[in-house]
Amino acid sequence: MIYAVFAPLIFALFIPWISKFKNKVHTGIFVFLVPLVIFLYFVQFIGSDFSPIRETIQWIPSLGMNFDFYLDGLSLLFVLLISGIGALVVLYSIYYLSKSEKLGHFYVYLLMFMAAMLGVVLSDNVFVLYAFWELTSISSFLLIGYWNFKERSRYGALKSMMITVFGGLSLLGGFVLLTVITGTTSIQEMISQVDVILSSNYLPLIMAFILLGAFTKSAQFPFHIWLPDAMEAPTPVSAYLHSATMVKAGIFLVARFSPIFSTYEWFFITVSIVGIITLCWGSYMAVRQTDLKGILAFSTISQLGMIMAMLGFGTEAAVFAAIFHILNHATFKGSLFMIAGIIDHETGTRDIRKLGGLFTLMPISATLALFGTFSMAGVPFPFLNGFYSKELFFDSTLGLEGASWLAQAIPYLAVLGSIFTFVYSMYLFFGVFTGPKHLDQLPKKPHEAPIGMLISPIILVLGVILIGLFGDKLNQSFLLHAAQAVNSGVEYHEIYFWHGFITPFIMSLIVVGVGIILFLTMKKWTGVYNILPGRFSFNRVYDRIIEKLDSYSKGITNVYMTGSLKHYMAIILGTTIVVTFTYMYISNGFSISFDNLAEVTFIEVAVIVIIIIGAIATLFINNNIGAILVTGIVGYGVAIMFVLYRAPDLALTQLVVETISIALFLLCFYHLPKLRKREESTSSKLLNLFISGGFGLLIIMIGIAAHSTNLFDSISQYFVENSYKLGGGDNIVNVILVDMRGLDTLFEITVLGIAALAVFGLIKMKKKKEAE
Hints:
It is a single chain. Helices cover 71% and strands 2% of the residues. By secondary structure, it is an all-alpha fold. It has 5 domains: 1-260, no CATH class; 262-528, no CATH class; 531-561; 565-711, no CATH class; 714-772, no CATH class. A hairpin with a 4-residue loop joins β1 and β2 (65-71). The radius of gyration is 32 Å and the shape is elongated. The two termini are 50 Å apart. It comes from Oceanobacillus bengalensis.
């Protein structure tokens, strides 16, 4: 299980090398094996006797941060979707993306995203989950902006990251509060402490933080605006991220934490209202779109709203229906995204106004779209899986308890949203494949896609049909386990087509009947969009907020970004002085004690006096070389002090650093103008005096306070006793740096490595410009 999470990341390291051979063999052929193997590995866990599995790798145990992976029915469902749909998407991309594309970049981003999603759904540690959560935002940003030469792609990528990362930071706040309250970072242990969480005064804040993270990621109203703009990504990305994986991360989060919040009434009210509004608004706005992927984007928003609403209901029937629809939605929506990509690929456009009559020209694609759209619409046919979960959704809306006004309104809103779902489904299919042809408006002469591009949607449509016909076969062995992970009270419910003329079926008939009427009369009533939303747009609100933030931040930045290094140093050092002294004053940090100090000898005083003289002398020397050499006196004086205080390692390091620094300074200053005395105003001199004197005093006070404040026992004796035993070295300082504080050293090396890469990049850029 652990290897499955990191396998995509490990394989991604080899993509740059593999992509060099893309002219001979498409890079996607090698990548296809990764999700396929992961899918085949996890399929073995499907079965009625399945029980949860836990695996752990220690990472930072002192902080409670370990790679704790937990596989139960819920995470198994998502893992199979991530790997299964992922394999089909990679297979589809082999024929969709030409070899002239930057395939190395694409597949590295895709594998990064796959690993991040696997980490999200399998992590039991909240902080590890958060790390993977943010990795999904970063990798999806790269995937959405893959065609970065397009302005709309860059806009969509930035928009998605801004909104989802904002929600991610909120999510982190909720996780921190949960950890503080429960004393654990394990989700399963948190679930076992439900009473502690529900009795906490921070409960409303925790729920708000977590739901904000979930709503932004799963494009819930009003945060849904990023999803339509993300459609600028290549179709394989849309089929993967926006039908089966990323947008369902928020759904997964709500499902995972439902055992904690399900008995909290405000959880039911908040999630149900947001979900139902998202269903209605998404389906209503989908009918307005003219871009195929735009229609599918808003349809995804509406479907996610329906699933979110069912999780908000929290009843056994609603939870089972939500789990079932997560699976069904991935099959029909994934296939429809791929069909939209095929239409775009073979006709050169996604504008539904230019399309029509393609059934005879693209019969296979049309047939696949027929099953996908009718399943999405919830048409009551026994071989369409969408109808089953849609009817279960209607059933779950009946008899809700809690806020009475909301419980009574939800069934009507569910029917309303489903009516528009039916309309946009019919609009999508019949608008593309029936009616008059507009071949003269198409950039390409349409024809059926190659079989390789059709394999993936065919498999997904077969899933639609097989789940519709034999859905109950997956019930006890698969779906039931997933539902019970969300609500332990869920019992076996047989899945079958005909239940009689009960209320949910009547609701379905109303949807179909009213939907047909609205579809046939679309031209007569679509003028309503001029009223609602009219000129109002959440996108305009977002753009206005970003514009204002950009304007204000630019104004603030222009105040201190003056181009003067002296100005920058004054701000940095002045802020450091004020903030540090203020904090020391508030926290009673001005402790002064002269106990346990070594005696001060004449030679130490002499060295200190020489250092002070050297430091002051640099202010009055106008010769470059002279100033550098006098500055070196200060550095070598510090080295002597290290020798006097029996720190030969530090003395040697100081000598080496000081010698190299002086040499570099001499080389640099040789090419610079000679120093000359500058005329400065009195205020400037006073500012210099304040900063230099204040910073010197600050360092003195920190040193004295650090010596005088003994909040803990000294750790020095621990190092003396354990450096050889734990680190295997006689040199205590080296053991501390390499073993006991190895994480600090690792980060320092990482910073140096990044700096080296940046310098190398600048050199390469300069050479490239010179060559041009």
